[in-house]
Design brief:
The chain is an alpha/beta fold. It contains 6 helices and 6 strands, in the order βααβαβααβαββ.
Amino acid sequence: MSTYISDIYLLRHGETDLNKNQLTQGVTDAPLNEAGLQQAEEAGEKLRKMGLTFDYVFSSPLVRASKTGQIVSGLSADDPRFIIVPELCEMNFGVLEGKPFLGALNMVVLNKDPASYTPPEGGESFDEIFARMDRCLQKMGTLSEELYRKQAEETGRKRPLSILAASHGMAMRVMLSIIRRTEVKDIWKTIIGNCDVFHLRLESGAKPGEWIYTELPKTLDHGDPYDPHVKG
């Protein structure tokens, strides 16, 4: 028998100058620009108007995601409910980071035929990021269950948690691909704009350490003016 543990809201960070200039970002620790800060403020306001508040935040360690998570949730980075999850970090593009998004053959292949992508020096392959994001889903399941039990012990009642998970475009695409059981070749079919929010329901399975993720209707959808896969 499964137990409904939490609602996890996957949030992509706000805009950075690297996004704006269509440069490869990856694990480069670029801050939000003024537009990104405004997007985060507006996203937080929209979610509050929907009646959403967050018990906890799981965040990538990169500042653009962490800052977005802080603004949207209202929790500061030093709040014990704000938890850094390293696995939520973006895909690493190695020596191509900071260079034009479609400026190298590797990146052209990534965008045209992702199943044939070969990472550049220092970069991460799809096999590697799929393995990492699978670990991330497992880790979020374990953390959620621990926090769910803690809440039940402290309050005497069981209530599904509301968790904001601040992450990045490709990392989120891969997580969603794992949940949907789709292939790498279809990775770009999911458009994820800055401060878009996807809703996942998490349940524990019949066996210890077994997690069931169910994708629910998208919560916030802003589109992505910088995504070359968006048809105009």
